[in-house]
Amino acid sequence: MRGSSCRMNIAAVLNGLLVSVLAAVLWKYAKLREHAYSVEEELLLTQQSQELSQVRIDYHAALQSLQEEGTRMVCTGKMHTDRICRFNYLCYSNEAEEFVFFHSNSSVMLPNLGSRRFQPALLDLSSVEDHNTQYFNFLELPAAALKFMPKPVFVPDVTLILNRFNPDNLMHIFHDDLLPIYYTMLQYPDLDQDARLVFMEGWNEGLHFDLYRLMSNKQPLLKEQLKNFGKLLCFTKSYVGLSKMTTWYQYGFVQPQGAKANILVSSMEIRQFTRFLMEKLNVSMEESSSGDEYIVVFSRTINRLILNEAELILALAQEFQMKTVTVSLDDHSFADIVQIISRASMLVSMHGAQLVTSVFLPRGALVVEIFPYAVNPDHYTPYKTLASLPGIDLQYVAWQNTNEENTVAFPDRPWDQGGIAHLEKAEQDHIMKSKEVPQHLCCRNPEWLFRIYQDTKVDIPSLIDAIRQTVKTKPNLKKAKPGIIVHPGKVRDPKCQASVQGTNEARLTVSWQIPWNLKYLKVREVKYEVWIQEQGENTYMPYILPHQNYTFSENIKPFTTYLVWIRCFFNKTLLGPFADVLVCRT
């Protein structure tokens, strides 16, 4: 017994030693990983610093150039909401956290707005229009003040200085940042792939910083990182601001959210941008060799869940006789998600930022957006608007849960995740009983947050019925290349000829030649719009005509002067300009 007890004691001691050694190794591993992360971050900052120092221009030459050639600001756009400015030697003080424009006798500032540049700002740093957290301005000093300031570090890269709006949200990343960055850089030849992006909003990198890295060959700089390069940085050549031409949605800061009133982007610009991004991500743009069509369900894993997702996947596969796969931001790289979605016939998802990936869907594909209980799809339409952009060729279906029993709410969560426990009892009761979130402004409406963060059990027959109303069999992917959107020119050689038939009867004959560019186009349908207005009157008579010569007699008076406008349009919606007005007297 004594020998057995001894062996047990030795085993216990060895076991204890083994546990101690293992704990020490794990602790050492954890410390090494922590050190590795800090070293990696330090190396990144060192690399950025070396990038700048390797190409840093001669300090004295740069300072002399700043003082003798002078700082310059030349802006495009009449209003702060559409203005982009180009600067030579715009500086940034890390101490004051302000941009500085140093004046000399050779400085140029166009437009020279004086104090009007504070009403409310010189420009918007973000593509989100007229948001008071996105305004840009600068302080002014005489160049002589540089003698009393820290020695400036001159940044030789051409830079694009901007604010990211919300780098943790994919919709904001694509809509507010990446697309505007891409098309701002296309506007200015020296904003090429060797330009450097500088983000001044103060956020950290965010969840998808690798997407921003795709926009340039050089590492983007964050506001916090500027401190590593000195107290005063001077950008030898910089552009400040972003183009808003590619945005299609407003988020409800002034009025309830919805499509922008004046959308200027079409499928042509969206598809060109997605091709650029897919190339950068090394995603193949070739059609699948297998030819299999499939449905993608974009799965959310933290909140706003589809509670019966497995049953939904099975039902979609059975109903449409198509393979159905899931993707999620947690389980797939972004490149893999793009690869999968770019060949899908249908994308199904809860309402959320992940649906902006529908920009990668092929033409003819279907977007199915699921809304929680009490959230009206007509009030939240960023992806419906995207799917309806000219020439985008996407089909769209919205489905809303209308059965309160099929929803799970979370009133005890933090307020920004839909919790309402912090509210007065009466307001909590009102929100719980409400059947529809009323239209509201952004961004902290508690009823909206409570409802949008609900989990949903999808009524599968109802959802499939909604899809079937749009797609009778299967989504029909369009293999042909998209047609280029071309508008007609002015009609040529417009003429009018009048004749009087009697004291109360007259005729007006109007003729014209086809637009010059029409003879080079293959167009399904060509028609002409003619407006006739009696001179001095406020109303006009509109006509839609299929041919180029027409005689009008109805409502045409003898001895009267008429103004006539003519224009061509293609395929019902592609309008051309009006020709010069004809003045015709009967």
TrEMBL record:
Keyword vocabulary terms for this entry: Endoplasmic reticulum, Glycoprotein, Glycosyltransferase, Membrane, Signal-anchor, Transferase, Transmembrane, Transmembrane helix
Pfam families linked: Glyco_transf_61
Bilayer disposition of the protein: Single-pass type II membrane protein
Residue ranges of the TM segments: none
Cell compartment(s), UniProt: Endoplasmic reticulum membrane
Segments forming domain Fibronectin type-III: 490-586
Enzyme Commission number(s) from the entry: 2.4.1.312
Keyword Membrane: yes
Domain of life from the UniProt record: Eukaryota
InterPro entries: FN3_dom, FN3_sf, Glyco_transf_61_cat, Glycosyltransferase_61, Ig-like_fold
Catalysed reaction equations from the record: 3-O-(alpha-D-mannosyl)-L-threonyl-[protein] + UDP-N-acetyl-alpha-D-glucosamine = 3-O-(N-acetyl-beta-D-glucosaminyl-(1->4)-alpha-D-mannosyl)-L-threonyl-[protein] + UDP + H(+)
Pathway as given in its UniProt record: Protein modification; protein glycosylation
Family to which this protein belongs: Belongs to the glycosyltransferase 61 family.
Entry-linked PANTHER family: GLYCOSYLTRANSFERASE (PTHR20961), PROTEIN O-LINKED-MANNOSE BETA-1,4-N-ACETYLGLUCOSAMINYLTRANSFERASE 2 (PTHR20961:SF38)
Protein function: O-linked mannose beta-1,4-N-acetylglucosaminyltransferase that transfers UDP-N-acetyl-D-glucosamine to the 4-position of the mannose to generate N-acetyl-D-glucosamine-beta-1,4-O-D-mannosylprotein. Involved in the biosynthesis of the phosphorylated O-mannosyl trisaccharide (N-acetylgalactosamine-beta-3-N-acetylglucosamine-beta-4-(phosphate-6-)mannose), a carbohydrate structure present in alpha-dystroglycan (DAG1), which is required for binding laminin G-like domain-containing extracellular proteins with high affinity.
Protein name: Protein O-linked-mannose beta-1,4-N-acetylglucosaminyltransferase 2
